[in-house]
Amino acid sequence: MRSNFLQRTITGFIYVTAVVGCIMLSNISFFILLFAVNFLCLKEFYELVLPDKSWLEKYLGIIAGSVMFVMFSITFSAHLSLAWYYNLIPIFLIIFIIKLYENTHTEFSTLAFQVLGIIYITLPIVMLSKTAFFDSVEYSAGLPMGFFLLLWASDTGAYLAGKNFGKHKLFERVSPKKTWEGFAGGLLFSLAVAYTISFLPSFDDITKIDWLIIAILVTVFGTFGDLFESLLKRNLHIKDSGTILPGHGGMLDRFDGLFLAVPAMFFYLLFTN
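Given the sequence above, the corresponding structure tokens read:
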């Protein structure tokens, strides 16, 4: 038990240090971080949902998602015309044409999972990369760094409150350990962090009210993201999505809340700024 706690602590420290360092250092390191997260999450996802498929069937979605992320990121950081998005058309054409040559008799179910992976993983990460250039031509770490701080605060608050006060199940069918008390603790801690960072110069891209609303969105949709990944694992009859992060499971286990929380935050920012 003590060994597992130490393992989780060391892995968590390395993970947080890597994320914070890459976001705060430069736009290049931020790009590398998100590229790696996107690639590894896609790889893990396709290995879970397409376990018996060929190398091509698994990596076709990984390659398509990686190319999409790179193209969108270049467009955001270099401030290129949105016409660059048209270059994504050949990617989808290739995905569909390749299906004609697979001859597996499960081409459409495979295609559905390949497209789902891009929608579920790549698009939210693309949105996160855009937040660094949301209202400026220069790279700004405020929004992406603030997002991670709120997501971590929500997770930490939920864990502590749920462990000490949790009694009423939040969604027992999908995740027996989650409680309403844990959710409330995560929300309160996230709001406290949002209020605190709103006074710091590094996070002045948006207003205090914006940060508080985003804290609510991150907590609510981050919880839904966690539940969705739990549902995926229950359907696949597995405990963890992978083993790449000792003591924490896989990449999807670590970033599950991000995949629904980022679109919620991005949608809010689009319509208020």
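The CA atoms of residues 17 and 92 lie 36 Å apart. Try to locate this feature in the token string yourself.
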